[in-house]
Amino acid sequence: MKKNIIYSLLLVGAAFSFAACSDDDIESTSIITADAVEQTPLDKWLEVNYLQPYNIEIKYRYEYNESDEDYYTVPAQYDQAIEMAHIVKYSCVEAYDEVAGINFTRHYFPKLFYLEGEWHYMNNGTFELGTAEGGKKINLMGVNYIDMYKHDLNDLNTYYLKTIHHEFTHILNQTTDYSATYQLITPTGYVADSWSDSPNDSAYLERGFITSYAQHSHSEDFAEMMSTYVTNTAEQWEAWMQEAAGTAENPQPGRDYLEAKLQMVKDYMMTTFHIDLDELRESVLRREQDIVDGKIDLSDVDVTINEAD
Q1: Mean pLDDT of 132-148
Q2: Phi, psi of 46 (to 5 degrees)
Q3: 15-49 pLDDT per residue, tens
Q4: 140 three-state secondary structure
Q5: pLDDT tens-digit series, residues 212-264
């Protein structure tokens, strides 16, 4: 089974106020197992809002077979799982509905989300935000920290939503691959697991990579281009392009490389799936801002209205 992995930020000093500790007590609001448990209001809400319209299953209870035994894993807390289910639906699933139509989302969006409370910490000082497996499943991690990050657009994208778009890009690529020409734009720049090591962890824009992790491989590069583009404003993107170009005294080829890559990503999405990437970005950012501004009730699991419609 093919498994694509996205690594995230370096863990540096006291930059984070949380950690995975083996002796942490599991909070009473955590869901441990799906065996012999009563159905919760969230179960019914998920059935009405995910399973019935999209045939998508959200698993938020701990299941050994869905977890990775190589990592210390923590179950998602119930209230945090409710919020994450709302966030994914409104900002991701329905953004694709809006731009590409619900039939696209029904056909291509992964059929299983498994929510974990903690991220997967790596020996190289990084941690996994999420994984995609077999074109059908996304593991979304760090759910128990959603209250810490849901009020800031950059944080929401960095830790959660960009991950979903990244992993969904892998799933689309597994359905229809992109042109092999893509990997020829910066053919000698891919460094595998050394992407977080010096000197690869700096000046990557000038070398034609939108993130440090994009240097891992051409498939991760493609997914990083797609996910970074749709979760950032045009102003931010242009700032990165200017940095990639270097200075008048020290010009760099990065902007040319990145613009060539972006055009290939846009062409791929339009030709293969009839999706305008700029329209998708507008929808994603507008919906994300609604979440940050508190316009979406992330705690409501009442399905009375849904059932009456």
Answers
A1: 86
A2: -65, -35
A3: 333 333 333 444 444 454 445 578 999 999 999 99
A4: strand
A5: 999 999 999 999 999 999 999 999 999 999 999 999 999 999 999 999 999 99
pTM, full prediction: 0.84
Count of other CB atoms within 10 angstroms of residue 60: 28
C-alpha distances (whole Å) from 248 to each of 71, 186, 243 are: 47, 22, 11
For residue 93, give the nearest of 302, 301, 280 by alpha carbon.
Answer: 280
Residues 6+ apart with CB under 8 A from 229: 210, 237, 262, 265, 277, 281
Helix (H) or strand (E) holding 137: strand 137-140
Decide if 284 contacts 95 (C-beta within 8 A).
yes
Contact assessment for residue 63 and residue 107, using Cβ atoms and an 8 Å cutoff: no
CA angle 93, 95, 99 (to 5 degrees): 120
Cβ pair 222, 169 in contact under 8 A: yes
pLDDT at 8: 46
Contacts of 302 (CB under 8 A, 6+ apart): 41, 45
| Tokens describing residue 278 | 């700029």
Average pLDDT, stretch 258-281? 98
Phi, psi of 6 (to 5 degrees): -110, 125
With tokens 């999405």, the residue in question is 269
CB-based burial label for 241 (10 Å; 0-12, 13-18, 19+): middle
State the angle between helix axes of 254-273 and 234-244 in degrees (0 to 180), rounded to the nearest 10. Answer: 140
147 touches 80 (CB < 8 A): yes
CA–CA gap between residue 35 and residue 295 (Å, rounded)? 35
The token duo for 72 is: 């210390």
Q: Answer yes or no: are the C-beta atoms of 226 and 165 closer than 8 Å.
A: yes
Q: For position 15, what pLDDT does the model report?
A: 32
* Measured distance CA(124)–CA(126) in Å, rounded: 6
Q: Rounded to whole angstroms, how far apart are CA atoms 292 and 111?
A: 26
d(CA 141, CA 159): 9
